[in-house]
Amino acid sequence: MHLVAILFLTKSPVRKIVIAGNWKMFKTQAESLEFLEGFLPTLDETPQDREVVLCVPFTDLNVLSKNLHGSRVQLGAQNVHWEESGAYTGEISGLMLTEIGVRYVIVGHSERRQYFGETDYTVNLRLKAAQRFGLTPILCVGETKQQRDAGETESLIISQLEKDLVDVDQENLVIAYEPIWAIGTGDTCEAKEANRVIGLIRSQLSNPDVPIQYGGSVKPNNIDEIMEQSEIDGVLVGGASLEPVGFAKIVNYK
Ligand code: PGA
């Protein structure tokens, strides 16, 4: 192959590959330990340049923190409040998360936006707070089926990025493109289309080396095609991250 073509097809060596599981509201502490028993041994074959993250329910964080010690898995939470402490029933602060060894936090997942009234304004506050406490936020953006069908995908994503990223440090950030219609549906976005939208996201950033993931029905049988795409630097995996053997296949994609 021509050298120029090789250069264009290869991902930037600066961009980190981040494979993250999002357990959502699944797994008790006992179930999370059972998962680790099956999952941790499979990481012996994982290439060193891949960051592996598990974003788990709050009640699992402490037990995982203790049991991930010395492993290469980084711990992630699924939300963070913008204050250090205060009268915010049901919320959790960055200080509480970092104290137990949490390194990543998902912010602005579509389920938070859809069911819990999360707006671009609160997403922005949470992103800035995460960074203030030394966490790396994984910002989720993506369109609904209706918005896609109406041809609004690009404008929606540009608008989400514009509002969500005000005063956010792009040196400590991961973005996940998660088309809402592909989440939990088995209806994966075509790899080339995901690559196109992720290219658009990258074109909006001041730091082009921000790792950008794809999320939405990622499975062992589609991970290779997804990770072959030049713009895609990793995946955010819901359902398929709950089962150790399947998630190991995703983490150890070829
Ligand atoms: P899914 O979820 O892999 O089950 O589609 C992805 C997500 O919501 O992050």
The helix-and-strand class reads alpha/beta
Order of helices and strands: HEHEHEHEHHEHHEHEHEH
Bound chemical compounds? 2-phosphoglycolic acid
User: What fold name goes in the CATH topology slot of the domain at 75-251?
Assistant: TIM Barrel
CATH superfamily of the domain at 75-251: Aldolase class I
Global geometry: globular
Describe the main β-sheet briefly.
Answer: 8 strands, parallel, barrel
Question: Which strand order does the major sheet show?
Answer: 1-2-3-4-5-6-7-8
| SS strand fraction | 15-25%
Total beta-strand segments: 8
Distance between the termini: 20 Å
Question: Which regions contain 5 or more consecutive residues with pLDDT less than 50?
Answer: none
Which CATH C-level class of the domain at 75-251 is it?
Answer: Alpha Beta
Rounded mean pLDDT score:
95
Evaluate the radius of gyration.
17 Å
Helical segment tally? 11
- Helix proportion of residues, in percent? 25-40%
User: Could you say what the CATH architecture of the domain at 75-251 is?
Assistant: Alpha-Beta Barrel
List the keywords.
254 residues, binds 2-phosphoglycolic acid, TIM Barrel, 11 helices
Which helices and strands occur, and which strands form pairs?
Elements: H1 3-9, E1 17-22, H2 29-39, E2 50-55, H3 58-68, E3 73-77, H4 94-99, E4 104-107, H5 110-115, H6 120-132, E5 136-141, H7 145-149, H8 153-164, E6 174-177, H9 191-203, E7 212-215, H10 223-227, E8 234-237, H11 244-251
Helix pairs in contact: 2-3, 2-11
The protein binds 2-phosphoglycolic acid.
